[in-house]
Records
---
Amino acid sequence: MTNTLSDKADRGAPMLPGTVHRIESAAESPTRRTINRFLRHRLALGAVFVLATIALFALFAPVVERYPYEEIDLRARATGPTMEHWFGTDRVGRDIWSRTIHGARVSLIVGIMATAISTTIGLVFGALAGYYGGWVDMVIMRFTDVVMTFPSIVIMLTLAAMLPRTVWTIVFIIGLLSWPKFARLVHGQFLSLREQEYVVAARTLGIPNRRIIFVHILPNVFAPLVALVTFSVGEAILIEAGLSFLGLGVPPPTPSWGNMLEAARNLEILRDLPWMWIPPAIMTVLTILCVNFIGDGMRDAIDPRLVL
Amino acid sequence: MKKYIAPLILVLLVVSLSFSALEAQDAGGGGTLVGAFDVGPGGAPLIRPFMDTAGRTWLSKIWTPLVSWNADATGIEPQLATSWEANEDASSWTFHLREGVLWHDGEAMTADDVKFSLELAFHPEAATQYSSFSQLSAAQFVGGEAYAAGEADAIEGIVVVDDLTVQMDFVNPNPRLPFSLIFAWVLPQHALADLAPADYQTTDWFYTSPIGTGPFMQDEFVQDQFWALVPNPNYWNGAPKLDRLINRYFADETAALLALEGGEIQFTYASADVALRMQDDPNVVLYSGPSGVTNYFIFNQRIPAFQDVRVRQAFLYAIDRQAIAEAIMGGTVELVPCIAALPGMHPAADQLNDYAYDPDKARELLAEAGWDASQEFELVTYYNNQQSLDTMAAAQQYLAEVGINVTPLAVDVPTYNSYFYTGEGWDISYRGVGATLVYPWQFYIEGGFEVTSGETLMGPAFPELEEMMVAAQAETDPDRFIEQLQGICQYQNEQALEGYMWTATRFGVAANTLQDFYWFPAQGGGPYADHAELWSVGS
Amino acid sequence: MFKYLIRRLLFSLPVLLAITIIVFALVELAPGDVVDYFRSPETQMTEESAAQLRARFGLDQPVPVRYLNWLGSVLQGDLGYRFVDGRPVAQVIGQRLGATTLLVGSALVIGIVIGVPLGVFTSLRQYSSWDFFLTGVSFLGISMPAFIAGIFGLYVFAIKLNLFPTGGMRPVDHAPSLFESLHYLALPAFILGLQHIAQYMRYTRFSMLEVIRSDYVTTARAKGLTEQAITWRHVVRNAILPVVTVIGFSIPGLVVGAVFTETIFSWPGMGTLYLDAVRGRDVPLLMGMNLVIAAAVLLVNIATDLAYAVVDPRIRYD
């Protein structure tokens, strides 16, 4: 919400003496203000640093690793953390530290990119359907229903056999199957919000629909949407783990946190060789936590009514 | 005298009562044994007789075949057939049945039941899998082809001589027939006569009201949860000691192992890596044995590169099988020179190439063969247990070091078979095959036991090998038969027809409270002589 | 509203049809069929046997013919028989559905009953130590893969602490009493419920924070209403909308099941059934299950949309 007084000030109209206006809003654009508020959210800031660190390690994995992630050393198999192998080795002697940071690449890409795809598609469909209503609503949301009922396992099985087995294939499959939830959430919010007084007022004033959607309603959809986004990132990482179980994940020897965690289905590994699955488990939890706190921060930053 | 009568009667009464109490103790009193008998590769929940490519351990509790494996699957043990003999050229066999065997409902088992069961197994409308794993087909019997075509109501070649004697006549000699009859369950004609063969696969009689001659009979069946049996008091080898025998179903080996730890079951299959870790646990007893399954790499020889014997040999030299066997399999496997998982099938070591790890030799052979190191191949498997995946990962690394680039791919069984049997979509495959004395010929011979030329499942035909196999198939003398198998083994080994790895030991884990329990990792669960009637649960 | 409901229900029928066609096509495209499943790789099946089996299952007929046959049966109320063991599809689904509804339903109830109030609680005490603690614990619940949480839960609570049975739905030696049945249900339902608790707690919290600063809440405060009255009468009722949506996402789980939890706890439900069906390329079962799941999802979506209108009277469907 902009301050009308400051609008006049920005446009160079003469200021009447005695009027009060907020210095802050005269100096800052809404975007700047949002960023500043985010930066004041300490938890979110901390989460950004942690996530950025993880991402940096992932990016520079070949530099930071001590052994190639695929190198097998049968003499040093299944050893715990040592000076040689910081996180120990797996059952064919591959270095777990190296596999964890390389695994970050796969899991972060899958988690973030798949969610980005789902969010974008879901947002667009949900907003259009929710705002315009009528036949647009019916067609879009019924299409959403169809995609929602797709048997994901069968699709992944079929597509995995037909398409090249790369990270991006998995990203697209997860992304293209997960958007209905976003669409439904956004759609529901729009149904409610479009009846709010300020929206009705905006329509009456003749403000174009696109502006209403993006400037007036969408920011208020943010809160639950952000929650769904954070959950979906975690879900995408875990779906990738499940795919590894079905043999549909990234092909070996490429590591991902998912397929490293998958090894823990074996009782021996779970109980007696914990160093093989605890690093990816901690990384997964940490990533999901960070994404969540960043989401918190973004929500607080964008919320116009919050006074920090 | 009169005053002694009452106490005398009393004593007699007490004595006779205690005798009957003792008798009652012979049946039951041994507690309840709960096991996860269908976990692991030998298990198959809710499989019915003649469809049983696995799961035979549990089936043998209710039904009995004509013969079975002995305790360690090295030979044959009489079951419902006590003795048998063949004519000169093994084209006619006579089986003598055990006397006094009763069905669970009290009726007597006779030779009619045997004929009925076999005819049901071969009935075209029942479409059972018996022929596949027994390698005995209707057409081998006299009059069998007409039966299989639906033109005859019965198989002429199965003759009921009298109540306890069955004669089987074959078109061609069948020297090792008893091995095919290990899977010949005898079903009750009086109970199943009204079953339309077309309904064989769909009737639930086998779980809800089964009748057999086995040591245990039906108690309670709860779909997807468990199947409980009680002792058959008329079992011909003595009434079982257990009060109840229960098979609990688990979707996952880990769930079964956890139940074992929690004391809720007393037996389950365990993967080798887990079993080895439990070796030192005083609360469990390990059962193990050779699995009879040879694990190996098979080449799709439609690919020209793999038609060169030097390339295949290089493959074997490149992989350090010994290191993998020790490191990944914990030493629980035995390296093999060929597909031959039974003792005595390997010729003497000096006739074999052990393909000891020699990457330089591998590179040499590849160079000779003009190998193109830029090619990439897909290595497909249907195994998804950790040890197999580790094996493939190790193999990938070894092969990469000599310039053979493979990408391992684990897929599920239907996907795997859809590639394998059409010859498309796979380059190399890691698989296992069970060997019995009725040999896995099908990969090398197309369409049965005749020599053919043209495509086989591996690609091109192998005329020399086919000749040897046909000769072995027809061989009646057991010693010469073994010699011929050794010859086949030597040929496979020399030609490196496949990348032979090993036969694995498989494990079962049981609570130490069990007494006289026995388990053996026979292929498909056997059936083998486990003497379940002796099992009991101590305190 | 009534007209809207009728329109939605009518629309559902062609949607359902479209879904069945798409699913059938997808299943056909997947590599392998049920005969490939029966062909155990370690024993062999002759080509004649394979061909015979295929003919038996009707797999030698062209795809559209098979689809129309299936559709025809369904319209007559017959969902067919499983390829793998010949049992009637409707019966199999019915059994597993009961088990799944019990498990997932309990988990949902646990999630709502514990999660929503906790969400309200933490939103009112934002950034307090309670907030951090509960957030952290709940996140452990959702960021751990289901099978690890399950195995861990089983190991700790059933084996080490001996508080619960190690899996299964009932004891093997006697029919269970109600209490015993609940005893078997408790651990898997709770482990499954952890993830719902976390989700609902977060959504409620987010939503509440949104609404707490609304103008009408400020107005209510200015009017002098007690905090409690404000909380429950105004804030929660308005914050509940997205939570309803999210609960709506979870309800199809009653039909879809939770495959990992079912596997570890030996609770034979729709999740493991689906996996079996896919593994066996069991077309009749897959089609039957997808029909049931699709119908459930459609109905739940309709119900959720109607619930919006109940919760937020301003929403109009035109």
---
Amino acid sequence: MENLKQTKDIAFLMDSEELQDATMKRRSFLKYTGASAAGLALLAAGCKKDRNDDMGIRLGEGDIGILNYAYALEQLEAAFYTRVAATPNTGLSSAEAALFVDIRDHEIAHREFFKAALGNKAIGNLEVDFSSINFTNRDSILSAAKAFEDLGVSAYNGAGRLIQSADYLLLAGKIVSVEARHAALIRDLISNGTFADTTVVNTNGLDLSRSPGQVLAIAKAYIKTEISLTGLPNY
Amino acid sequence: MNILNIIDEIEKIDGDLSERLNPRRKAMQAISGFGGKIALTALPFALGSMFKKAYGQTSTTAQVVEVLQFALTLEYLEAEFYTKGLSTATFTIPSEAARGALTTIRDHENAHVTFLKNTISSLNATPVSKPTFDFTAKGTFPTVFSNYDTFLAVSQAFEDTGVRAYKGQAGNLIGSNAVLTAALNIHSVEARHASHIRQMRKARGASVKPWITGNDSGIGASVQAIYNGEETDTQAGIKITGIGGLSISASAATEAFDEPLTKDQVLAIVTPFIV
């Protein structure tokens, strides 16, 4: 009977709007339930995505959350390439600079697309932090570009399973292959032939994928605005 | 019977349980529903159906296998193409860098074949057998294994087709997280290949970029079906050219998004390569 009572408790909690919106902080949530050990284990499992993420902007839940997540990453990329294109002495050759302008425009197109698609659900402009990048040094630019593009590919690959709408999944697919084209080019500019080397492609011939939590943990080195994982689909 | 401990225990053994139960919230709402409305004796049945959904995926396995068999056929095509090109003694590959890149791609395509066969077998289906290929496409590319530029053009055509083909199948894999993720991970590798092959062609004077501009193949009419549709500059009803009042050109707008092909479109493209 004890178990039945726990189940009822959880039933009540799961039905509550607050929990479904994942806005209830974990600490008060647990205090509120007063659940016993077995229940705590389950509740902890249920809440582990939300831990320590109450700071920062919320991207939203479900597909809106994923779209804002993509919007955030595209803001980061677009800002980076915009800065490269605006820097006079990058050390890039003119042919390379022209390709970077193409990539800048692709990333701006992605950013603006998500902004328009999200409408009033879109997050605001993120503040970026490029202090670790030397924009007058070709190697530094290429190294950062490689990091952004490989991260972007792994982010879209890893987010696919979290997307509920087939339309949005297709849109993510339309973008990720362009990011992969970018990544391959940047890698070849650094060292020809590394477009799909073993640092990104495993022995099964599979590219990397990363969960939103993993991606944002890496991306935050370049983003001043704090982004919360609360509510965002993750694994 | 302790329902909560059951889930907890399975989580210890199967760290992916929470993913299998995805979306978690729906699963939890299912539990909550039982607790509130169904007698305790009904719980095992209800829980059983929840796990069946998580592990069995009975309703979609046939669909998933169909996608994998389709993908396997394309990977057979690519794998044999590079294997043959690299092993044809009379075919001159002009540099070690080029041979290295083609070897990398060949190895990936072979790995994809093995991976897809294993995945199909794991779903209790028999992988389709490799067709007999004609890489001249019934005479369209007679110099495919004697002229390096023809070889690279066919390579680009295959890679760009692969990207579009996988993209078109993603929606059929929703709910099968492991397979969907693997398919996406192959999809982006094909795009990396396409980017590199396009750079190789560019270095030899072809008018191509690593990405697809409009519906321009940079090859000719013989492969146009692979590029038709890439010229769209509207995504989800949103026009990308000049989006947000910014100077995004029509070319950039089409380059920024790769388009899918349906299975039928892909089969029409590869049929001339199959004897």
